[in-house]
Design brief:
DNA polymerase, domain 1; 5-stranded mixed sheet; Ubiquitin-like (UB roll); 155 residues; alpha+beta; 5 helices; single chain; 5 strands; 32% helix
């Protein structure tokens, strides 16, 4: 039975009405129009749908709406501050790290969280952090380089 939920999405309080078991991804895309997070595997294994939920990176495709009530959700759209891209977003562009870009929003969210906890990671740390993010295009090397570049930029 649908009911109302209060969330903070990208710093903005929102109310949505949905069944409590509705995946957070469905609400973000279909009700809030935030289409940066992608539906990949539907099992929380590919990383295309990653968002930050109260600072933790989670797969939004298998996170039920009820578990996000009252929480702060940050999507790829929420990483930028106004017109200023997040250093990860800018570095991904600068390094031409995305090919088809299907995976890149989840990677950007995960990389931003990594840089929040580890401001200047080494290559192994970045590689391990992005292990759950799948890229079928094979752009992993450029993605890792972009995250390393973003880590060297003071925010």
């Amino acid at each position: 039975m649908p009911r109302q939920f209060a969330l903070i999405v990208n710093g903005r309080p929102v109310r949505v009405t949905a069944d409590p078991e509705t995946p957070l991804l469905t609400v973000l895309r279909n009700q809030l129009g935030l289409v940066g997070s992608r539906f990949g595997c539907g099992l929380g294994m590919c990383g295309a749908c990653f968002v930050q939920l109260d600072g933790q990176v989670v797969p939004s495709c298998d996170t039920p709406l009820w578990s996000a009530e009252g929480a702060s959700v940050v999507t790829v759209e929420g990483l930028a501050e106004g017109d200023q891209l997040h250093p990860v977003q800018q570095a991904l562009l600068d390094e031409q790290a995305a090919q088809c870009a299907f995976c890149i929003s989840g990677i950007a969210v995960r990389a931003a969280a990594l840089l929040e906890s580890t401001p200047n990671p080494d290559e192994q740390t970045v590689t391990e952090a992005l292990d759950r993010n799948l890229c079928r295009c094979g752009a992993h090397r450029r993605i890792v380089q972009a995250v390393l570049k973003a880590g060297s930029v003071a925010r």
